[in-house]
Predict the structure.
Amino acid sequence: MSNYLLIESRDPFECSDVEGVCWLAGELAQTGHKVTLFFLQNGALTARAGAETTDFEPLTASGVEVLVDDFALRERGIGNAQLADGIKPASLEVIVDHLADGSKVIWH
């Protein structure tokens, strides 16, 4: 099976395709792939608890690692305590590590 890194940088309130990226992450994980979903830039808005954009519980239950760029959080005034359950802050080094490890990367 392959390793996938899905990167979402779009604002979930302006782009309805964010749900599609989450759906793809779940489908890949259910078929046995290792999947990391990384939100950065305006995608960080998706990670707030109560944002009513996506339910992350099924994703994390299926084994998807859901991360959000810590710099994007700081820029938008979102604290770690305000993140939805199952989402962890991380640095952009995660992307570099995935690229170095040969993960398949999809950036939306």
Observations:
- Residues 3-107 form a domain with the Hypothetical Protein Ychn; Chain: A, fold (CATH 3.40.1260.10).
- The mean pLDDT is 91.
